[in-house]
Amino acid sequence: MKGAVPDPFAFVGALVAPYEGLDEVERIRRGAFVLATAPRPPVGQTPHEIIHTHDKLVVRYYAPTGDYEGDGDALPVALIPSLINRAYVLDLEPGRSVVEALAAKGHPTYLVDWGVPGPEDAAEDVAYVLLDLLHRSIERICRHARSKQAHVFGYCQGGTLAAMYVALRPERVASLCLLAAPAKFSEGGRFRDLVLHLDVDEAIDGDGLVPVDVLKPAFRLLDPMGNWTKNKGVDAASKDHKRLASTLAREVWLDDTVPMTGAFAKEFVKMGYHEDRLTKGTWEVRGQPVLLSAIACRTLVVACDGDFISPKEAVLPMVDAIGANAKSVTLPTGHIGVVVSSAGPKLFYPLLDRWFRGIQPE
Predict the structure, then answer these.
(1) How many Å apart are CA 235 and CA 228, to the nearest integer?
(2) Residues 65-101 pLDDT 10s
(3) What is the pLDDT of residue 26?
(4) CATH topology for 40-211+259-356?
């Protein structure tokens, strides 16, 4: 057809066709070849504007594209991802995008993108992240939306930080949703096992960065057979161009690790995974204890059955620590799949929309 856009994955079908029926090792090899040679799709495509910058951080605004079905006016929704990975995991591709889904339901949606720190940011600790970067972002979001309060959503480490922030600065927060956010670090599973005996003062330079070439191998140790299963998945996906594009989009994000500031990494590992201070109420930020019981807004804690990065045993204690205002839901999916696989549009995006419209989970 005249004017049709060429399919960048068209060559893959012809490449793999002669190898149907081969054994598992050959499927792994074939998947590895496709992974190494196939072009990467674009990510983070949902239209937006930048409404705030602070150091390396930017806040991206996604205007509503659909009608809001709740009572009254839609409050802004602030999305808080992890510092370790790129924020576009919440806007990976069309149809698998938290920001796209919320905007389509009429929510003014804002994504806090922490950016990539440099050596000049090495001294930025948890207090700076919470009380400077995040606090000013929430304030700017509320001003931009002309709203007194915002809903806050935090994912993984971003969820832990969101809970800590709301405990310290609750005034601007109408409700809170925490996805796969560790609270009881002593139940932190494989990641806790990885860092439990790490001498952070010796291993982490508080005046430097934890570089990507240290973080990537560490993450791979969480799933030692991950490359095998990944290559098998790529091979299976290679038979369907749309599925392959989705698989490769996820690989773009997984490979796009960012460094951590030394000061933040030392504090988060020591206070969290070593000393388990959050649920004990003994983690202090600029002299103020972080008391999860001080979170007074309605809070939804979401855990995932297949999550080995933030096991539900580490996530669900957030409910007891917060108290009567908190509820929990456990979804039959994994840590990353909950936002970027079919579980996102089927299970999680509708749950998030309903929560921010004031509908309690069943």
Answers:
(1) 11
(2) 999 998 899 999 999 999 999 999 999 999 999 999 9
(3) 83
(4) Rossmann fold (3.40.50)
